[in-house]
Every structure is written in C-alpha cells, then in structure tokens.
C-alpha cells in the first residue's frame, strides 16, 4: 500500500516526537507497520481509518481502488498527551 502524509500531519508529529530528522519517513514507516499488523479501524467519519501505533492515533483517508492511504492528522492518547485529540476536533469545527 502506498502511504502519503500531509504537511499538517508532519507538523503534529514533530510536536509529539522531538528530535526527529525525517518526520514524513518516520510516519510512513510507523503507519505502514501498524496497518500491516492489523492495528487499523474505521474512523468516526466515512472513508477515514484510524491507525494506532502505541499512544499515537494516525487519522487516514483510504483510497482502496488505488491502494493509497493518506495520513491527514494525528493525536496522542493517554494521560498527558503532547498532541491531544482536541486539536483534531478543533480543525474539524473550522472546516
């Protein structure tokens, strides 16, 4: 499966994972491994897929006919997340 990552998702990842050299490549690797391991589930919106890797939840749009997965944003689950879901929810309210 081909995996693409939006600039927004890269920025959110950098907020969460400090010191990364190539955030886009790291996201692609993490999402690819998690997806292949079956840690993906339908998201709350039609056409979205939530891919979980540890405490991170990558929100993706899946294009099955083309075999593409586009990572659009992410958030972190847990007690004290660096990138909590409220940031993703705020983006949806603006749109």
Shape: globular
CATH architecture: 2-Layer Sandwich
Task: Tally the helices.
Answer: 3
Classify the beta-strand content into a percent band. 25-35%
Helix content: 25-40%
CATH class: Alpha Beta
Side by side, the strands of the main sheet go: 1-5-4-3-2
User: How does the major sheet shape up?
Assistant: 5 strands, mixed
Strand tally is 5
What is the radius of gyration computed over CA atoms, rounded to a whole number of angstroms?
12 Å
Question: How many domains in all?
Answer: 1
CATH superfamily: RelE-like
As residue ranges, the low-confidence spans are none
3D structure, described in words:
The chain is α+β, with helices and mostly antiparallel strands. It has a single domain (2-94), classed as RelE-like (YaeB-like fold, 2-Layer Sandwich), CATH 3.30.2310. It is 36% helix and 32% strand. It has 3 helices and 5 strands; from the N terminus they run βααββββα. The protein has helices at residues 7-16, 23-36, 85-94; strands spanning 2-5, 40-42, 48-53, 56-63, 68-76. A 5-stranded mixed β-sheet has the order 1-5-4-3-2, sandwiched between helices. The longest helix has 14 residues, at 23-36. The N and C termini lie far apart (28 Å). The model has no long low-confidence stretch (mean pLDDT 86).
């Amino acid at each position: 499966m081909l995996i693409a990552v939006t600039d927004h998702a890269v920025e959110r990842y950098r907020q969460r994972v400090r010191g990364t050299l190539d955030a886009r490549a790291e996201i692609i690797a993490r999402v690819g491994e998690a997806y292949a391991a079956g840690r993906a589930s339908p998201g709350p919106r039609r056409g979205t897929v939530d891919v979980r890797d540890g405490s991170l939840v990558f929100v993706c749009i899946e294009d099955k006919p083309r075999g593409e997965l586009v990572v659009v944003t992410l958030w972190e689950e847990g007690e004290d997340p660096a990138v909590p879901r409220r940031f993703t929810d705020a983006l949806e309210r603006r749109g």
